[in-house]
Write a structure and sequence with these properties.
about 350 residues; single chain; six-stranded mixed β-sheet; four-stranded mixed β-sheet; alpha+beta
């Protein structure tokens, strides 16, 4: 039989089970200014209701097709948790979703987040959501809702997890990839900000092997700590890509270079009758990847299939427009380069020449 003598005199509450409703309410109040800062046509970015609303007509769409994506941040979260650095991880969360939407030629419209933890720390939650709001501002989408789940027993210590959900739209008939990708088209790369948000289980293993403390200068960038360098948020490409499309540059296909690197992601954007040929000598490789390759003893092909190696986005377009796209992206603050071409379909969907400067 159960022993009721151990119960509080006035009975159990949810807080006795480890869930603090007051803390949840305090977090909602604390994040309202950040959420409101993401307002845009179609959404007032208010939270607290049972569902978020978005008005496609107010956003200017006539005959829209919706595009949705969801993602997480993976074990990059462990670096944020272990070092107490939570301010940028929300940008990663937004980036991983909205970059997948813009490759379809769609404009991200709104975002929802899911934040789960064992014990809610209001300040940590506030920092995370402020990062999410920053990612939404960078990409031009509204943060219209989310869920905070306090689940004692599911998560240990300060652990938490994040998931993001984004919805965008494009006018019917304008979605990418286009069917006219053909041999001779150019491949333009847009530079990454670093490792972005993929491969961090391997990154953390390499850090363990290296013996470098998170708070010491990064071996590949002494101006920053190792944790600060590896927590550099994923670059968001939404506005530069939408700007290029609005300028009439004929983008035919886009590929977000995430888990799977060049080898697995580029074919996702191409029809079956073509392949991609990449000149690795033209790829601008940040120093972090050379350090990871050396300490981890990784070969070039493994690097190309695990990390972005300095390329966050691939653009395919007619070769006659490639220089125009490069100039346009430079004006938008990006680091573009022509790194290859489309070829007739071969035995491999992606082939390489040259060598990564690792």
């Amino acid at each position: 039989m159960s022993d009721a003598s151990n119960l509080p005199s006035n009975g159990l509450s949810y807080k006795h089970a480890g869930v603090d409703i007051d803390a949840g309410n305090a977090l909602v109040d604390a994040i309202k200014p950040a959420v409101r800062s993401t307002r845009r046509p179609g959404a007032d970015a208010e939270i607290g209701g049972f569902g978020g609303l978005f008005d496609l007509k107010a956003a200017g769409f006539i005959d829209p097709v919706l595009v949705a994506a969801n993602d997480g941040v993976g074990t990059k979260l462990k670096i944020a948790i272990d070092t107490g650095s939570h301010s940028t991880i929300g940008i990663d969360l937004v980036a991983m979703c909205v970059n997948d939407i813009v490759v379809q030629g769609a404009e991200p419209l709104f975002f929802l987040d899911y934040f789960a933890t064992g014990k809610l720390d209001v300040e940590v939650g506030k920092a995370i959501v402020e990062g999410i709001a920053e990612g939404c501002r960078i990409s031009g989408c509204a943060l219209i809702g989310g869920e905070t789940a306090e689940m004692p027993g599911m998560y240990h210590g300060n652990d938490y997890d994040l998931a993001g959900f984004a919805v965008g739209a494009a006018e019917r008939g304008t979605l990418l990839p286009r069917p006219d990708v053909r041999p001779g088209d150019a491949i333009v790369a847009i530079g990454s900000s670093g490792v972005h948000s993929n491969g961090y289980s391997l990154v953390r293993k390499i850090v363990d092997i290296s013996g470098v403390d998170w708070y010491l200068p990064a071996p590949f960038d002494e101006a920053r700590t190792l944790s600060g360098a590896l927590l550099t948020p994923t670059r968001i490409y939404v506005k530069p890509i939408l700007s290029a499309l609005k300028a009439g540059i004929g983008l035919k296909a886009l590929a977000h270079i995430t888990g799977g690197g060049f080898i697995d992601n580029i074919p996702r954007a191409l029809p079956e009758n073509v392949s991609a040929h990449i000149d690795l000598n033209a790829v601008q490789v940040p120093k972090v990847f050379g350090w990871l390759a050396r300490v981890g003893g990784m070969g070039e092909r493994e690097m190309l299939r695990t990390f972005n190696c300095g390329v966050g986005m691939i653009c395919v377009l007619d070769a006659r427009e490639a220089e125009q796209l490069v100039s346009h992206l430079y004006e938008q603050g990006e680091k573009p380069a022509i790194i290859g071409r489309i070829t007739e379909a071969g035995a491999e969907p992606v082939t390489f020449e040259g060598k990564l400067a690792l």
